Amino acid sequence: MGIRFKFNLTIIIIFISGFIISGFLVKGVLLENAKKEVALNASIMMAAAKSVRSYTVEEIRPLLNKLGSKEFLPQTVPAYSATESMKRLRVTFPDYTYKEAALNPTNPEHKAAAWEEDVIQYFRTYESVKEYSGVRDTPTGQYLFLGRPFKITKQGCLVCHSTPDAAPKSMIKKYGRSNGFGWKHNEIIGAQIVNVPMSIPLQRANEALITFMIILGAVFVAIWLALNLMLYLIIIKRIDVIAQTSEKISNGDLSTPEFTMEGKDEIDSLSRSFNLMYRSLCSAVKLLDKTQAG
Q1: Is residue 111 in some structural domain?
Q2: Domain that holds residue 113
Q3: Per DSSP, what are the bridge partners of residue 134?
Q4: Looking at the 3D structure of the chain, how many domains does it have?
Q5: Whole-angstrom Cα distance, residue 78 to residue 55?
Q6: pLDDT tens-digit series, residues 36-64
Q7: Which of 97, 145, 170, 291 has the fewest CB atoms below 10 angstroms from its CB?
Q8: Which residues contact 197 (CB under 8 A, 6 or more apart)?
Q9: What is the CA radius of gyration of the chain?
Q10: In what order do the strands lie in the sheet with 141-151?
Q11: CB 105 within 8 A of CB 181
């Protein structure tokens, strides 16, 4: 087993180990960055919905109330405004969803799905928690959800949601008497929930990982070739010369010239020692020849 084979075997083992470890570590970092990107998008959507709700309460509702209409206007409801605004966002980003899910909503569109009910119950169990997020698997891929509890903190909200008799007749006419009543003050009745797809960030992370591994492999090949060239020129080539010279001398050819040394590395030290041995051998042979001739 030659030096070059041992050297390359060692380099390959080191590279494979480093390749696997680097890939594992980089993949973890890229996936974490992808999750952070998705979480940021979800936070932006939640902030946008909150802004629409605030705008409705502070700007739209007072203007519509000035009209003095006794008819129930859903445009004055913050949940309606936020939901409708996010629906328009879905025209451009169909996989991004926003929902004000409730266990007992006035509008049937806000009825919580099974997994959304779990989120609401989580907020009910842990009332101190103000935000809850997680990743869920769906037939179309993974989604990150971000939820915030919706609590009845203003007594004014109970005017429309305490009993059907207390609610505006126009609201009863639009949504019926069966849903959206019996709410209580300081009760968590639902949650604002944003769903953001993870497919695109995960795809980008995988593409970045593949690119990184290709570059890493190319760098290794370049280093491997450079090391092999250096190994041949600095060590193997010079050792081959010493080996060939030694073989000639062992066959009785004492006319071989000594090595020329141009440096002070280990190979030159070996050459210097070989030259000393060669001179001693030549002197011994000459002395033996004289003894035999005499």
Answers
A1: yes
A2: 3-206
A3: 145
A4: 1
A5: 8
A6: 899 898 999 899 988 988 888 888 878 77
A7: 291
A8: 38, 95, 96, 140, 141, 142, 143
A9: 41
A10: 97-102, 188-197, 141-151, 132-138
A11: no
| Those residues with Cβ within 8 angstroms of residue 48's Cβ, 6 or more apart along the chain or in another chain | 85, 86, 89
**Pairwise CA distance, residues 188 & 190, whole Å:** 6
Q: Does residue 20 lie within any of the structural domains?
A: yes
**174, two tokens:** 């639009």
Residues of the chain where predicted confidence (pLDDT) is lower than 70: 1, 67-70, 156-157, 159, 252-255, 258-263, 285, 289-290, 292-294
b/e burial code for range 260-275 (CB count within 10 A of at least 16 → b): eeeeeeebeeebeebb
| Integer Cα distance of 116 and 124 in angstroms | 13
Residue 114 resides in a domain: yes
Domain annotation covers residue 43 = yes
